[in-house]
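Predict the 3D structure for this chain.
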Amino acid sequence: MGAFQDLVFQGAVTSKLLRFSVTQDGVARILYLASVISAEEKPAWQAFQDVLDFSVKSAASGMLGIFGLDILSADIQNGIQHFNTQDFSTLLINHGRRLQVGQRAVIRYDQVFCLLHKRVAADWGKIEVASHVEIVNPGKTRLLGFLKRIIGAAGQEKGIYLIHDLGLLPAWELEQEMQDKKLCDFLQQNPGNIYFYRTEGQLRDILVQGCHPRESGDPAESKANSAGFPLSRE
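Done. Predicted structure below.
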């Protein structure tokens, strides 16, 4: 799967599921993104949120208006090591000054991708943050159940379903999950969909990995493009 030529954020279907329209090789598709992290790594995610919240509060003091900030994607494994709160605050302020009410701007800072939206004009500043990351307990929530839930939330719409695991260790071991025949049966019953699981720098095709033999020259996994938005692979 190559890079997308166009990627447009269409909004949050639920607080933990984002909808995008994408174009690849002239073909338009719908993409759903579900970002997760294992409950064991909840402290790491909270530490990242603390750094983010500090930056946002600093930025709000230099802005005029009420803004929404959607965190579309973040690399908490490496990104937090290079995250400079002052630089990120300055970036938000500069973008916020150029926005009119109703306008939005996609912002990238290192491996953090976010959408800044000016909602209301005001003579003071406020930024409301939505992170859209679900903390999962893999012992209680299997991959099959998670997939069924997000597809149901999407209204069974045909498209690309990407689970982006933000943790250092994967919430689900794909090989182990694919031992459940029900998962393979479910994937094959929905042939119009494409399913990816991104973890540890790899973007893995769940259907190919678990239900179809690997063909020569068509690996079931490949390195993800670490420099770009993690919805494509090289």
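The longest helix spans residues 42-60.
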